[in-house]
Description:
Blueprint: H1 17-24, E1 50-54, H2 59-64, H3 71-82, E2 91-94, E3 101-104, E4 107-110, H4 115-132, E5 136-140, H5 142-149, H6 155-158, E6 162-164, E7 170-174, H7 177-181, H8 186-204
Parallel strand pairs: 1-2, 1-5, 5-7
Antiparallel strand pairs: 3-4, 6-7
Bound molecules: uracil and iron/sulfur cluster.
Iron/sulfur cluster is lined by residues 7, 24, 27-30, 32-33, 39, 96-98, 117, 120-121, 124.
Amino acid sequence: MEKFPGAEEWVPARGGLPKVAERLKDCRGCDLWEDAEQVVPGDGPAKARMMLVGEQPGDVEDKEGQVFVGPAGRLLDKALEAAGITRDSVYITNAVKHFRFERRGKRRIHKTPAVGHIVACGPWLAREREIVKPELVVVLGAVAARALLGTGFKVTEHRGEPVELPDGTAAVATVHPSSVVRSEEYRRDFGLFVDDLRAAGALLA
Ligand code: URA
Ligand code: SF4
């Protein structure tokens, strides 16, 4: 695993989400800030009962500075609505706050963050969890699962099931919405994704 200093020294011990967003801009906890356009903070009410955790910003998020506003975000919006969950009521963030990519000509191709990046960025997610104190965390895909549930957890084996984070917080893991966007069995996979979100919503009801 590539070793980075980690975000610890940039994470504010006090203050709320606006403070986190402000300090995120200075973070040099790993090397991903160098090539990205900007950092993408989480978004949503500090009092949200549900927190959704994705992987990292994509191309569109990196340009706009907002979480889940590209193709995966549109799918997530649709799925949340189908599951009866209002996007405005949930807090949405990513395991890694800068976009990792490879250049191919003019295109920027998403590259999965390394474990070193996930670990380095972990203190930001931990601080967000301290501030929001969600009753339920929805884990979107393998990178978020690595960040929140550790190495051994397989999303495909436990999707939609009630699980617990190491500190006892209730959680539900599911696939990443990007995998649904790309799916060749879109209708089936969209339906399964909505089922998982509905199962998560039911735990809060
Ligand atoms: N994928 C993510 O995991 N997060 C985003 O913000 C956008 C795409
Ligand atoms: Fe800091 Fe996370 Fe960005 Fe790395 S990805 S520089 S740890 S905010």
